[in-house]
């Protein structure tokens, strides 16, 4: 069920009118629906059923403390890629024992921070990282729980910038090296081998790449068992796609059902790291039209939101639906929806059929994932407010940045 619907011709988020929210907090703003976040998380959790598992939400998709807290209250685990994300999870009340730490460039400090916090597992991505983690754990007189992230060399069929499971990508350990490295990890005194891990890319809309990756890693698990290395968990990563436009990604039920057939008869705990599938369609980006402008037969709607607030259209040519908050009757025209940033690539959408006037509010859909988390202060634009609705209530979950925050921590020469 969609929680962003028109009721009496005005766009609502759950039971709140978006125009009221915009009037109260100003624009641009990000708006999240608690009910949608919870529904998406439960969809994964229920789909896996009674098989031992952890749903470790990928914090990078949306790391607002209120979002993390809503998920932590459901019992979610978390997939992190930095010490900053770990700190956020802890601040939001997340359980460190349900945290997995991914990423190719963990620093020694981040390793120590995560060891002290008592995380579930490090997803190690290279031989060099393995040796470093063993050293850091040794200095702390601890044993680091690890899995190795294997790069299964499957084509995820997604945008090249968000494909991660091909040999040419920087992520994970090559299949040919995997066995040797597991044996090395098994022999190192300050590491405890727990699992295997993969993550082949993001916004996948087909099941086959996931299934191919699982097949390859299960074969590896069998080889390892013959060598006395017991694997307790299988982390399938994240990557399940969402509908931005006409895509028809598998429902978590079908995704889980297909994967579970591969694990029948095995004593493996499953770990899932969904980010986008939980957060993307739980959020909107709300922006106001500042001016209309016509240039050589082209219509521009210049809005107060920009690429620094929501970079996906500029960075990946990503298409996100743009809809009016209070639709006008009458003729539509094709508009490019552009922001105030001084870059030609600053657009939220191109060639959109709309009937808009200056002052109107527009909502960019599917903006709950990789929206605010990828925002910057480019052009010295303060980062926008974030609001969460919960039924007929709404809460400011991050204040709009103030101008003085733009140069916080900067210093003049004496
Ligand atoms: C290691 C890892 N896990 C999980 C995710 C979450 O991916 P998605 O948002 O596509 O579910 C990512 C990002 O792609 C990732 O790099
Ligand atoms: N930022 C990307 C997804 C990256 C996934 C990171 N592992 C997007 O918006 O589509």
TrEMBL record:
PANTHER family on file: DIAMINOPIMELATE DECARBOXYLASE (PTHR43727), GROUP IV DECARBOXYLASE (PTHR43727:SF2)
Family per similarity comment: Belongs to the Orn/Lys/Arg decarboxylase class-II family. LysA subfamily.
Molecular function in Gene Ontology: diaminopimelate decarboxylase activity
Orn/DAP/Arg decarboxylase 2 N-terminal domain span: 35-280
Domain of life: Bacteria
HAMAP family assigned: LysA
Catalytic activity field: meso-2,6-diaminopimelate + H(+) = L-lysine + CO2
Pathway: Amino-acid biosynthesis; L-lysine biosynthesis via DAP pathway; L-lysine from DL-2,6-diaminopimelate: step 1/1
Subunit structure: Homodimer.
Keywords in alphabetical order: Amino-acid biosynthesis, Decarboxylase, Lyase, Lysine biosynthesis, Pyridoxal phosphate
UniProt source species: Shewanella submarina
E.C. number: 4.1.1.20
Protein name, as recorded: Diaminopimelate decarboxylase
Name of the top EC class for this enzyme: lyase
Residue numbers of N6-(pyridoxal phosphate)lysine PTMs: 60
InterPro entries found in the cross-reference section: Ala_racemase/Decarboxylase_C (IPR009006), DAP_deCOOHase_LysA (IPR002986), De-COase2_CS (IPR022657), De-COase2_N (IPR022644), De-COase2_pyr-phos_BS (IPR022653), Orn/DAP/Arg_de-COase (IPR000183), PLP-binding_barrel (IPR029066)
Extent of the signal sequence: none
Residues reported to bind pyridoxal 5'-phosphate: 239, 273-276, 370
Role of this protein: Specifically catalyzes the decarboxylation of meso-diaminopimelate (meso-DAP) to L-lysine.
Residue sites binding substrate per the record: 276, 312, 316, 343, 370
